[in-house]
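This section describes the prediction task in plain terms. A model, or a person checking by hand, is given the sequence of a single protein chain and must write out its three-dimensional structure as a string of tokens. No templates, partner chains or ligands are provided. The sample shown here is typical of the held-out split.
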Amino acid sequence: MASTNVTPLCFSTNTPPFKHNHTIASAYFSAVFSGLGLSSNLFALLVLAKTFHHTKSRSRSSFLLFLGGLVFTDFMGLLVTGSIVVSYHITHFNWRQLDPQCHFCNFMGMSMVFYGLCPLLLGAAMAVERFVGINRPFARSSMSNTRVCWTVALVWVTAGSISLLPLVGLGHYHLQVPGSWCFLNISSAPLDITFGLIFSLVGLASLAVSFLLNTVSVVTLLRVCCGADSTQRRRDYEVEMMVQLILIMVIASICWCPLLVFIAQTVLSGSELDVRYLLLWLRFATGNQVLDPWVYILFRRAILKRVAPKMDWSRGSIVSLYPTLSTSFRKLTRASLGGTLDRLDHIRPNPCIARQEDTPLPVLDTSATSV
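The expected answer:
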């Protein structure tokens, strides 16, 4: 009987029932938000599956697998956490009666951390894949679809391992105001500080890696697209993938940086937790799961063709859309490609024949022959 009066650890900071009524955490808002996110991710998964079935490019199929893993993770995150939040707002269940041993609260806390870190880590993995594909194209052949699947699985294992740390004593998961969700405990306790910093720094480091590698990839892609041999290179799909990846990175940064910085700043300063800002930045973060699928839905070549039908999307290179950029990048590209060919000559058994095989066919300039 004495043990029943002991407050479980997950309820030691915030004990239900709550009397707070935050508009941002209302039942209507949560239901609409979750429904919109689930339907968007499901539609994106269907489009991705159809595109993957018809694609013949290895680099594009690898990117689509990464993107499919990201969309699937977002879908499952909204399904798991959204169902708990909406159920609470509809039934107003008492957490202490439903979960006296904190198992359910720990599960939701783990889900929040796992599905929070996965998109950031997957974004970094996609940035690495595009960096290798654009800057080291001859090494891209080793990135098979099987290896991509293993990479996605490794990301899931990494995020899952971090989410399990509170269960082994590093940090805690606590019920959060207004009582509809559980998350890592943001306090000045040493273990809570450590886990809070791990969560924040892993997320921020993933965003930093994405930003760095994507920047290098964009610069390299511009040099290749606008170089002397650009008209013989088919780069429209590379540009499409980079545009999608840049938008995914920008959305993740806008949605997650406020929450990650807020957690790190709060635990390091030892200041009292401001629940209003925690709920606000949490909504920003969960918005990432709703916006991610629309990046692929809206920014595909099929959609861009309809938005800009006057552009000649059938040409072999994106440089045909921006011919004025060719001259300004020609010298840089010639030097870069020349160095690459020189290095390959030392590897190829017969460099003269290899160069002849690599020489692309001439492309007819339709603008010059038009009447």
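For orientation: The first strand starts at residue 173 and ends at 176.
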